[in-house]
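C-alpha cells for chain A. Residues wanted.
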C-alpha cells in the first residue's frame, strides 16, 4: 500500500540537495519510485510549502518532486547569487537531468510558471504536459506591494525585524482570496524571518523587479509549445488578474483555462480541492 503521508510531507522537510550555481537547492520526492513523475514549482514570495496538501494527494498515484528555488524556502540564501528567471530556468533544466526525468508532467505556480516556460522554450526541457497556476508569464505582473517597493528594496531591508514581520504577514495574506489560516501563514512566513531571512526576501524581490522584460522576450516562444497545457486561475486573483490568463490561453495553441472559485493568487492554498481535482483530470 502506498503511503505518501511520510513525516517529510507532514512536517514539510526537504531532505535532499542539489549544488546549483545559485546556491544549494533543497528538494524532496514523494510516492512510489515507479509511478509517473510530476514536478511542482512554487513562485514568489513563497516556497514549495504551498504544494504541501496537493503533493500528498498526487503522491497516491504519482512520483512527486518538489524543490525550493535558490534563495527561497529551505534552499541556500546567500548574497551575490544569480536569482533571475533566466538562471532559475537553467537550474530547473539541470534538476530534471539530475533527477533523470526525460518527460515529466510539470505543474507551476506564480513565477514558477515563468521558470517552467523558460526551461521549456529556451533550454529545451521536455515535458509530458504543463499546468500553469496563476502563473507569471505575461507582463504586467506582480502585486501592488511588489510594484510599490520596486527599486527601494534596500530601504525596506533595513526595517526592524518586528516591522518586517508585520509587513510580511499582511503581504502574504493579501495573496489569498479568503485569507490564510494562521498555521499556513506561519509556514509561508518562516523562511523570511530573522536577519538572514529578511535580507533574502528583499534580495529575491529585487531580482523579480528586473525580470519583467525577460517574460516579454520569451513570450515569442509560447506559440511554439505543442504539449498539452492547462491553465488554472483563482477567480479572486488580484496579483495577476484573469485577463493575463485569457491572453496566455490565446498564445498557447490548444491550451484551456479553468477558473477556481473563491481562490486568490494562492490557489494551491485557497482552493486545493478544486485545483487537485482539475490536476488529477489533466494528468490522466
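Reply:
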Amino acid at each position: 500500500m502506498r503511503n505518501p503521508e511520510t513525516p517529510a510531507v507532514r512536517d514539510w522537510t526537504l531532505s535532499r540537495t542539489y549544488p546549483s550555481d545559485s546556491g544549494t537547492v533543497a528538494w524532496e520526492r514523494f510516492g512510489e519510485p515507479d509511478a509517473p513523475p510530476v514536478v511542482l514549482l512554487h513562485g514568489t514570495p513563497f516556497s514549495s510549502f504551498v504544494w504541501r496538501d496537493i503533493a500528498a494527494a498526487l503522491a497516491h498515484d504519482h512520483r512527486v518532486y518538489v524543490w525550493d528555488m535558490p534563495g527561497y524556502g529551505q534552499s541556500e540564501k546567500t548574497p551575490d547569487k544569480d536569482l533571475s528567471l533566466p538562471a532559475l530556468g537553467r537550474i530547473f533544466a539541470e534538476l530534471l537531468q539530475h533527477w533523470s526525468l526525460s518527460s515529466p508532467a510539470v505543474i507551476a505556480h506564480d513565477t514558477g510558471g515563468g521558470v517552467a516556460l523558460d526551461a521549456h522554450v529556451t533550454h529545451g526541457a521536455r515535458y509530458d504536459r504543463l499546468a500553469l497556476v496563476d502563473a507569471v508569464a505575461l507582463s504586467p505582473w506582480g502585486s501592488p506591494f511588489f510594484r510599490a517597493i520596486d527599486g527601494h528594496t534596500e530601504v525596506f531591508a533595513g526595517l526592524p525585524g518586528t516591522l518586517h514581520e508585520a509587513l510580511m504577514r499582511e503581504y502574504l495574506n493579501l495573496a489569498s482570496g479568503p485569507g490564510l489560516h494562521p498555521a499556513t501563514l506561519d509556514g509561508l512566513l518562516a523562511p523570511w524571518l530573522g536577519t538572514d531571512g529578511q535580507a533574502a526576501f528583499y534580495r529575491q524581490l529585487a531580482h523579480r523587479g528586473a525580470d519583467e522584460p525577460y517574460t516579454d522576450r520569451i513570450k515569442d516562444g509560447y506559440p511554439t509549445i505543442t504539449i498539452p497545457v492547462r491553465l488554472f486561475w483563482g477567480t479572486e486573483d488580484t496579483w495577476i488578474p484573469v485577463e493575463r490568463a485569457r491572453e496566455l490561453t490565446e498564445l498557447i495553441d490548444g491550451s484551456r483555462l479553468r477558473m477556481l472559485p473563491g481562490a486568490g493568487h494562492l490557489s494551491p492554498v485557497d482552493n486545493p480541492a478544486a485545483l487537485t481535482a482539475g490536476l488529477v483530470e489533466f494528468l490522466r
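Confidence is low (pLDDT under 50) at residues 1-9. The domain at 16-142+212-283 is CATH 3.40.50.1820 (Rossmann fold).
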